[in-house]
Design a protein that fits this description.
The protein is mostly helical. It has 2 domains: 1-90, no CATH class; 110-236, Leucine-rich Repeat Variant (Alpha Horseshoe). It is 69% helix and 0% strand. It is built from 15 helices and no strands. The protein has helices spanning 3-15, 18-24, 39-53, 58-71, 74-83, 95-106, 110-127, 132-139, 144-152, 155-159, 164-174, 180-193, 198-208, 214-220, 226-233. Helix 4 packs antiparallel against helix 5 and helix 5 (74-83) packs parallel to helix 7. The longest helix is centred in the middle third of the chain and has 18 residues, at 110-127. The protein is globular and about 60 Å long. The termini are far apart.
Length: 236
Amino acid sequence: MSRIVENIHKELEINSDEKTQASFQRFFKEKVTYYGVKTAVVGKIAEKYWIEVKTLDKKEIFALCEELYQTDYTEDAFIVSFWLPNYVEKIELRDLEVFRHWIEKYINNWAKCDGFCNHTMGNLIEKYPESLNELKKWAKSENRWLKRAAAVSLIVPAKKGYFLQEALEISDILLHDGDDMVQKGYGWLLKEESRKHQQEILSYIMKNKKKMPRLALRYAIELMPKELKTRAMKKE
């Protein structure tokens, strides 16, 4: 194990607390590995070591990120999610292959998936819109986290009103998926697109609500006015 990762682990161990340890697992259906450190504290540790890490070349930074993922600790994955959005100017389109590898091999709960995809993947997509074609391939994967990643990687761009058509296309691919993690993912994406495109999202929901799982539907309409929610939820 590298010196940097060893030092990060020592700080995580020191900062774990019984209350966080006791409550951590209840947020997950899957068995997760964790130290039990508050997210805000993990962020401070990540920021401290980013000052040291950011002077390294990209190959070395990516190697450290993979080493952190390999431990399986949720906090280590959070460290990666804190680091890489600070590195957006150095991220290249070809790094999408690395990111897919990490998701397929190391992502095993919603927190790791969303933490990485919301900003690191979101930044890459805004910088390289041509990467959207790869997301559509992810949506057709057998890997549940890659499918969720196809949706939640667009969350931050969607808040700005970007990529509506692609968001609808990905939702189409995921529409009948039986996995609740996937349903919540694309439902969340539709919700964020509704901030700037309420009518378009409502039209999509009304068109598909008979076949859309109720879980995804409830997520998608969360930001809509009460009368529109009632209209969307009404069985016809």
